[in-house]
Description:
By secondary structure, the protein is of the alpha/beta class. It folds into two domains: about 80 residues, Methionine synthase domain (Methyltransferase, Methionine Synthase (B12-binding Domains), Chain A, domain 1), CATH 1.10.1240.10; about 120 residues, Cobalamin-binding domain (Rossmann fold), CATH 3.40.50. It has nine helices and five strands. The chain has a five-stranded parallel β-sheet with strand order 2-1-3-4-5, with helices on both faces. Strand 3, helix 7 and strand 4 form a beta-alpha-beta unit. Helix 2 runs parallel beside helix 4. Cobalamin binds next to helix 3, helix 4, helix 5, strand 3 and helix 7.
Amino acid sequence: MTEQELLEAAAKAVVSADEDEAKAIATEAVKLGLDPLKVINEGFTPGMRDVGDLFERGTMFLPEVILASEAMVAAVAILEASLPEDQREKKAGTAVIGTIEGDVHDIGKGIVATLMRVYGFDVVDLGRDVPLDTFVEKVKETGAAIVGTSALMTTTMVGQKALEKMLKEAGIRDQVKTMVGGAVVTQYWADKIGADAYAENAQEAVQKALELVQG
Length: 215
Ligand code: B12
């Protein structure tokens, strides 16, 4: 199988919600020594995007979306396990990350958290459906350099705006950099709410996070 064929097969496995096939493709990618991030970003993620489109059009239903996401999670776990361990002596800093309250989408947030760990961040992953207060408390408690929030729905992205305000009210907005992401989030939204950075995918998220802490 060529790399291109493997990427296409990865997307197809997610769309057909075939977990065994998705795992087999991820295992094959590791065996072939392919870049795990490329396989996630250019194989499995486009498949998940197609799933979203089919769901929106009413061609695919929620139970199938759940099965498709399970297939993706299983494949991503195999690829993530093949990422190098963080071997940096100097830590990049602490990052608090989570999905905004009311939102249970956590696959992308999980990939961002894993990659940030690989690049030397101490990541405090608060999970999904995280109350805004919890983000503020964790930033205070850990003295985090970065707080990253994920939102995949128009109804929850407003939580990112509310968090900006809450960090200001808590008097800690100038001590922490904010990063926003998730399918519905854009650079325009980040600028509008005054977030310090937006990233479209996990690789870009790490790059921007490093820029933020390095000043
Ligand atoms: C999988 C999925 C689900 C799964 C989630 C499983 C899970 N554990 O996450 C399940 C089935 C549970 C689900 C449920 C629902 N879903 Co849904 N779901 C999706 C789907 C198909 C894919 C999301 C995904 O995992 N993508 C793959 C990952 C890798 O991509 P990603 O999340 O975008 O993450 C990347 C970047 O965005 C970025 N990133 C992500 N987070 C962060 C954070 C930071 C700080 C940074 C810098 C970057 C960053 O890096 C990531 C890695 O590259 C999307 C469609 C889509 N286009 O996104 C719909 C979608 C998000 N869902 C949608 C809806 C409506 C729902 C439901 C309300 C359906 C229902 N009727 O119940 C519920 C919501 C329940 C809730 N309260 O949250 C809508 C949202 C519409 C909107 N505009 O608001 C979408 C867009 C589908 C659609 N087209 O209609 N869903």
